[in-house]
Amino acid sequence: MPLECIGEELRLKLLGAIEAGGTKFVCGIGYEDGTILERASFPTTTPEETMALVFEYFRDKAVEAVGIGSFGPIDPVPGSPTYGYITTTPKPHWGGYNLVGAVRAELNVPVGFDTDVNGAALGESLWGAAQGLESCLYITVGTGIGAGAVVHGELIHGLSHPEMGHIYVRRHPDDRYEGFCPYHGDCLEGVAAGPAIGARWGKPAAELEAGHPAWEMEAHYLAHALMNYVLVLSPQRIVMGGGVMKQSHLFPLIRTQLQELLAGYVQHASLKDGIDRYVVPPGLGDNAGLAGALALARMAAEKN
Amino acid sequence: MPLECIGEELRLKLLGAIEAGGTKFVCGIGYEDGTILERASFPTTTPEETMALVFEYFRDKAVEAVGIGSFGPIDPVPGSPTYGYITTTPKPHWGGYNLVGAVRAELNVPVGFDTDVNGAALGESLWGAAQGLESCLYITVGTGIGAGAVVHGELIHGLSHPEMGHIYVRRHPDDRYEGFCPYHGDCLEGVAAGPAIGARWGKPAAELEAGHPAWEMEAHYLAHALMNYVLVLSPQRIVMGGGVMKQSHLFPLIRTQLQELLAGYVQHASLKDGIDRYVVPPGLGDNAGLAGALALARMAAEKN
Lengths: 304, 304
Hints:
- 2 copies of one chain form a homodimer.
- By secondary structure, the first copy, chain A, is α/β, with parallel strands linked by helices.
- Chain A has helices spanning 3-9, 47-58, 99-107, 116-127, 188-192, 194-201, 213-233, 250-262, 288-303, and strands at 14-20, 24-31, 36-43, 66-70, 85-86, 97-98, 111-115, 136-141, 145-151, 154-155, 238-241, 279-280.
- Chain A has 9 helices and 12 strands.
- In chain A, strands 3-2-1-4-7 form a 5-stranded mixed sheet. A 5-stranded mixed sheet of chain A has the order 10-9-8-11-12, sandwiched between helices. Chain A has a two-stranded antiparallel ribbon with strand order 5-6.
- In chain A, a hairpin with a 3-residue loop joins strand 1 and strand 2 (24-31).
- The longest helix of chain A is centred in the last third of the chain and has 21 residues, at 213-233.
- Chain A is globular and about 55 Å long.
- Chains A and B meet through helix 7 of A and helix 7 of B.
């Protein structure tokens, strides 16, 4: 039986998902159990052009709610005057754009809205590598670094949303690269995102062999970040995705360095023998982003 | 009318509070609205001796629930086999002590249990400097450094409890002191808790005048820590207590350095003109610890 029909039979809610990225918007529909039925992708140009394609995609889909996992910074705090806006992005045309307002006005359904990484954290906790846990952290290491977290089943907000990719970590003693973050120079993103690896070693991360010293240095930075996240949030699992983490040989390097840094201070089996199941790749693979948006749609549908 | 009678008239629940510290146990009773009626203090020697005094104190108090804000590390995760235990403390006699089990067996009331700093964070959010907010962070800077946080009205747990005092922050360029943390050497606690200030400058922090370079260095470390907490947790307010923070001239130094470090990346009024109301001393003053334990008692009474 096709997936559509199984969902129909179980009377699952049909939901829409928008993974709003800086280069493309991936749209899809799926069921509230995390099943993704179909997807389509549109280039991120101007809000007028891109959103016209998004609306056209959803026009005949009859979804009950839509979730948006968005590039940022955004305002995800309900009740704030700019709730639902993309706020201060350097991306031309999108700063100050009321993304939630536009989707709500056009599709007239509940809209869930959060950062792409908060969405992915929620998706992984519902259907992926952190299924069944009360808390988890999802971090993506690609052209940038971002992370989201679930605590007691809820996504973290406060003043606004986390920006965990911009923490300062201790510099690797052999690293002379100054970092590329326009705000902080050598914050985590500035020294450990894909462009930093490329600039430091003179060729793209994907072309550096597994034994290259680049990876020990990359593991140094990511393990320092994970140490901070463990000490601040105490997540029950850490899911690492994004282009750089496709280098699966990074995982054992990061796990070992994380254990060395914590030095046995936090006593938990997950940080000792269980470390291979503690720092893991996404259970949803390349679907983490779109499934995350679907998870945000589910949350919006439930709240409605 | 005496406080006791007002509480009686309003039919407020009478609750017990235990602030379990490494040198003394402070016990008290109070109402669920945060009013503390009385307190007593007992030295922390062995569990047998100390707890006998604690039980004697509560014997005729008829409290409806007890809250314990404890030194750690502890196991605050309900359902864990060692829930309610003090786990791996270097404090003699107390490692592996089932504190919650002992209190429950003796007093036969619901027991709330968490770290002292998580308790203080909850107390500040209910009755103190973060009243009415959905999230806050409480950090104490004294003989050690610890922090607790409220997110969406709940205390953070996961693997266990946060240990935010042990994050690594960037070293101050002029600092040659190696740090005193037995686990991590120069982690935040190792370089910025009271003993580090004393060891670095050759006299106790309390004896260093306001213009001493010690304070600019201390602000460097604490502002770096706050930057990480802001980027990971996005708390709506940060409350700073503990002996070192009695030096109130530290507050403006920390606020300014925090703004410089964030460099405008997180756009929020609280981090600009509102910074004086964002990084603040405890609203509950020296009662933060005991009121925190009272808040944990209230949570236990509500859950029951």
